[in-house]
Amino acid sequence: MKRFLLKEKGITMMALVLTIIVMIVIMSVLSFYVMNSIQTENFQSMKADIVEIEGKALSYYAEKGILPVYSEDTAHPENRKHARDMKGDRDFFNPNDGLMYGKVNLELLGVTPSYKTTYYMNLETLTVYAIDTIKIEGKDYPRPYEKFAKLNISNKHNEFLDVPPEMFNIDSDGEILSINQDWCVQNASSLSEYLTVSGQKITFHNLVFPMYDKNGNEITQISDKIFNDSGTHGLKVDGSMKIPATIEYIDEHVFPNNCNIEYLYINSKTFSENMFSGGNKKIYTVRIGPNCESIKGIAGTNITKLWVDNTNLSEGCFESCNSLELLVLSNSIERIPDGCFTNTNIRTILTDDVVNLKDGEIWPASGTYKEGNIMMPYRLKEIGSSAFSPCNFLKGTLDLEYYSPNLEVVEGGAFSNTGINLVKLPKDTKIQSNAFPGGAAIERAK
């Protein structure tokens, strides 16, 4: 009898345990479906909110000419977010988005959201996203999926449209042959933005080449004899020079041997490999525009500040620029090639969203950056071998986790001979041997 009761008690306990397990499974399944149902409901609410917000925002912008977002305010930093701080899978973001997002003023639009979150609008595309993303079936949604076409937007800065084409002698093929010195002297009083005249001597302190002639025809060339064939002597460039995107090629002789160019903006498709060398050329601050298809011939020059707007970097293209101290990189750069900045004296690296100037504007203004900052492009995926080695003046922390969250690999010796002592990496970034200094601490995102 005792043995039977023990056996019966054992069966009862086993049945109880099995019952509990079954109940847990059932509760888990019910919880999953309830949670999934809630997420699906939230997703539909988010979708309805975004459709309403984007529709009303477009109408508001068309009527008022301003975006319905809260103003940028240091007391309220949440009013602006950088792309790196936006949550959600990148597949759901508009590829044409700029890097900054503004907090939507829902009260201004008269919108009462069904999904309780904060909505942000891209300041360039007006695409709206929820800051509290919704996770469904392994996907992290900041907004419903939408197939956006990738646009190739050309930014034509007004400075190149406003400059009087009469300042130049231009032929019917769209080539600037020379400076029209007689016209410049006669109209000097209205050209103070560009030049000064003393007798018959012209000094350009802001030489801007136009995009179109007076008949609206595109200008595509600048003669390599522009300063040799300009008629009288006494022509001088002492200040800035700016070359627009319509120009296909720049010859080395476009720059006079006695030029003193404090700032050069060049956006031609290509330029001579010898453009910066030869003669007594002094070119200190250079901004290379997004239209340049290749960058060559700058290695070993005396440039001190460099802004690279495009993504077409080549191996060793800035090697041994021993005077180079400040570098600004486009956030669209995906790869920094092997030896790109090797053997330079770079102290500070910034990204273009920090400087944030329009094409052709002179930079950097005093106080716009802090020496010693090391930033990297947001869309960067690869850093080539010896890309920044040796760069003995790069010191401190290299935070790739924050600045380049999509980084896939840092190749051998990329930063090996630098003063970097702390490296922060995204979780899955691969690093090859000697990528960083031997004594540098390495932290990975969890």
Primary descriptors:
single chain, 446 residues, alpha/beta, 8-stranded mixed beta sheet, 4-stranded antiparallel beta sheet, 26 strands, disordered N terminus
Structure notes:
With 446 residues, the chain is of the alpha/beta class. Helix content is 19%, strand content 25%. The protein has six helices and 26 strands. Strand 3 and strand 4 (128-130) form a beta hairpin. The longest helix is centred in the N-terminal third of the chain and has 63 residues, at 2-64.
Task: Briefly summarize what is shown.
With 446 residues, the chain is of the alpha/beta class. The chain contains six helices and 26 strands.
Helix content: 10-25%
Mean pLDDT: 82
Task: Determine the number of helices (DSSP H or I, runs of at least 4 residues).
Answer: 6
Stretches where pLDDT is under 50 for at least 5 consecutive residues are 1-7, 152-157
Number of strands: 26
Counting helices, strands and paired strands, the structural category is alpha/beta
Described by the principal axes of the CA atoms, the overall outline is: globular
Main sheet strand line-up: 9-10-12-14-16-17-18-20
Q: Strand share of the residues?
A: 15-25%
First-last Cα distance = 60 Å
Question: What gyration radius follows from the Cα positions, in whole Å?
Answer: 30 Å
Report the biggest beta sheet as strand number plus sense, adding barrel if it closes. 8 strands, mixed
